[in-house]
């Protein structure tokens, strides 16, 4: 069967926007149990000669730091259990956050391939200097993208399929 790729990251970093860009029209919503964070959205994605199943693990929008972190841990656990490759997405505007570092530690320990996407780099000249701090997560080279402006998406997909 096809490789599975999961998107993990804090609320508001742009997971759904990236998911929609990568999925195009081919989205199927799968709800395991309504209202539960383990609800997932699946899409079939084709890039060059490779096809894969993409999962957005984002569920309900949490409203406190404690809930954010526990939901992120749950997302990361789902991704580690089910995915062959994990896209860990962060936000260059908000910068590196404590919860990013904690989830990066979980992902690193899992030994799964992780692609680190730094989103909202809408202007590469303006924001590139702020991308480098994400090297501190210790999960490899950050890939700058702008999901909203569809910049860097091809490079990101190249990195993903190189892991299959
Ligand atoms: P999620 O909570 O991680 O799923 O994030 P969303 O995809 O819902 O996006 C959260 C907010 O960030 C929305 O207002 C998006 O329009 C915005 N956003 C997403 N991607 C980008 C981007 O590349 N650049 C900018 N400037 N905003 C973005
Ligand atoms: Mg979302």
Characterize the structure shown.
By secondary structure, this protein is α/β, with parallel strands linked by helices. It is 35% helix and 24% strand. The chain has one domain (4-161): 3-Layer(aba) Sandwich (Rossmann fold), CATH 3.40.50. Mean pLDDT is 87; it is low at 31-38. Residues 15-16, 58 line the site of magnesium ion.
Structural descriptors:
single chain, 164 residues, alpha/beta, Rossmann fold, seven-stranded mixed sheet, 5 helices, 7 strands, binds guanosine-5'-diphosphate, binds magnesium ion, GTPase Der
Shape designation: globular
Distance between the termini: 12 Å
CATH architecture: 3-Layer(aba) Sandwich
CATH homologous superfamily designation: P-loop containing nucleotide triphosphate hydrolases
Number of DSSP strand runs: 7
CATH class label: Alpha Beta
Along the chain, the helix and strand elements come as EHEEEHEHEHEH
Provide the structure class: alpha/beta
Hetero groups bound? guanosine-5'-diphosphate, magnesium ion
Subunit structure: Associates with the 50S ribosomal subunit.
Binding site for GTP 1: 9-16, 56-60, 119-122
Protein name: GTPase Der
Organism: Maccoyibacter intestinihominis
